[in-house]
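Q:
My hope is that you can spare some time for a protein that puzzles me. I hope you can help me see how the letters and the tokens relate. Thank you; the sequence and its tokens follow:
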Amino acid sequence: MVKNNNTGGLPNRSSTCTTKKPANSEDLIPADKPADHSIPAASPELRTTGQGQLGFPDRVYLLASVIFQNNHLEKPAAHRLVNYGKERGLPLPEVKDEEMHRTAYELAFKTLKYQELLEDIMSDSCFYLTQPMPDDQMSLFAVMLYDFQDRKFLPRERHGEEEIVQEVKDVESYFLRFKTKLAASLARCRIKHGLLSIEHILPESVKRKQQRSSSLPLYAWVNTLKSSVDDVQSVLKSAGFLQGKSIGELGGQTFCQDTHCGDTLVFPAQLKAQLYTTKLLSDHTLIIQDKSCSLGPNAVCALLPEGGDVLMSGCFSGLTVSHTASLVAEKHKANSNVKPTVYVCVSDRTDAQREELQQAVATMGSRNVKLIPEVFQSLDNRHKRLQRLRVILLTPKCSVSAVSNPVEFILQENGDTDLLQDLSQSSIAQSKLDALAAQQRKDIDHALKFSKVLAVVYSTCSSYKEENEEVVSRALEQAKARSGQEGEPKRGNFRLSPSPFSIPDHAEGPMKTHPFFMLEPSEQRNGCFLAVLSREPEPVVKEAPNEVLIRANAKGILDRIGSKQRTTKEQHRHTNRTTKPTHGGTAQPHLSVSVHSKNQETMGSYSTALCGHQAFTNRRQSSQGKAKEMRLQPSKNTVSSSFSSSKSESIAPRKSITAVLNTTPRPPATPLARPRRPHQEVLKPVALVLPRVHFPDFFPPQLSRTGCSPSLHYKWRPPPQSVRLPRSSGGLSKDALVKPRPLF
């Protein structure tokens, strides 16, 4: 059986960025080896022949054994055939080569999938009983046994430059002595279970994922900071590649453009090694990455407004950060004043991981990325660097249950390696699933609390509803309940928005679970889930003009225009002007008759005159002078309504005079805003007959009692005949205007 875990590799993230060159057909010419070589030039340690895999370096076996020890399935004591010891969480041996690191994880993951079969072989061959070995070395024996049977029990070739680990050498010598018994035990197990190959012993779901992983096409996005999609396509065509219309047409040396992400190209799986030997990848113009990692950045780019920033939180690699930064920079490159910034939460990263992320971003040519060491839960819009934050991209830790090649995905996107044992059996433990969903709810709940954020993009690679629809639906309910609480500032609620990606017509497109965007895993791609939560706009409230004036006056910006209330200064000035002390210690209220402001002092002295006839006589000359001044005022400022010929107008002055005589103190009346004058009819002029200036003769009998002296009583006397004023057509006669009688 030929192993297929070395048919490709990850890009060397420690390489430096080269100078940008114009895209041409020379970018596809390999530098050292021919294009049809079966492995990348960056992995000289892994060599293959036509007969199969010759083995791995000792360091790979050692690292794989530690990974298996930390993640193997611990069986009950009654059903335990092999004891691996009780130690868990062992530190991983240091491996500097990225390819060796990935190969060790792949070897450990396959050993986890066949753990039960390998234990049956060790038990049936009596190797575990006849060759006593320490329990802590059984993990090394398990991973080497899987590789040994995969090589058809052929010896491993060594080279002088390779490092020799004594533990690995000892276990390999045991295998060579017992290879016949081990091969016979494997044959008996296959006959017992009726297996054509050992793959048939796996659960159906695991076997289906394993088959898909071998045929998954390559997805590569174009780094628009170095080139354009059209230029890269032209280079590929000039080098002999044919462009197809869909993934179904891929075969041989062809490529096509992805349906959902316009900057992503798709290649057949067999071209992986060839692409890694080209300058398109070495210059970081074309980046190979899973499609599920490209959907989030493309959604963010479509939602980000001009002048806004992006915040990323969760599990992602430097490739995902660089992809997001390149997309938003390309979209807003026309605006030279404000450049969008991509902020990345790295609180859960080690110093080495942060340095690696910064190096990867710098290699891609991204300059608009800034790392935030604070925990995501402690951030909000009050952070000085997040004032322009408008979109949040959440890619939290998930079960990766919708990914057919989980090891490669987890390693490239900094996923949770503790899930390897569950993924090897294609069933996530309920306790782990609940823990993942709880953290996901915390992240999305906090993201919806940002007051200036317009949209939140939530993306996972899980096939469980507990991590997808249920998390989003619960977050929306929590946000709605929080905005309705008393004391909570009113903000627009979030809602599910349609996906920014187009839906293809064929049946393999996104599911009909609207409005969520979901891709089912298939032979053409891994599965993923994406939801866009956008903020609803604030409702527009149309205020009436008077409501606008009231709100503006409350802020003191319109100088009390249209308000019925006076300011504190105006009330104080009005009180000092209208309130006069009297013998009774009371103040007279404002007259309801329209009188000029200069006559208020004269009218205020009326109540004082009621206290005694002698006091009134002493002020007689002063009153005559002021009365003359009143007659010289315009007609709208004189007391004329009390003597009108109309019946309704003759009642109003009596009420006003009664208010003057009333000694009950009242607070100053609030001045009203001058209303718009209604249409008035022109009345005929009348002749005023003024009484003699005798205070007791002015008031009618029903008003004879005053508040100053209850014993005073005055009688009404008709005016003398000698004071009669003639009626004229134009108004008062000249004599009446020149020689008027005083008011008292």
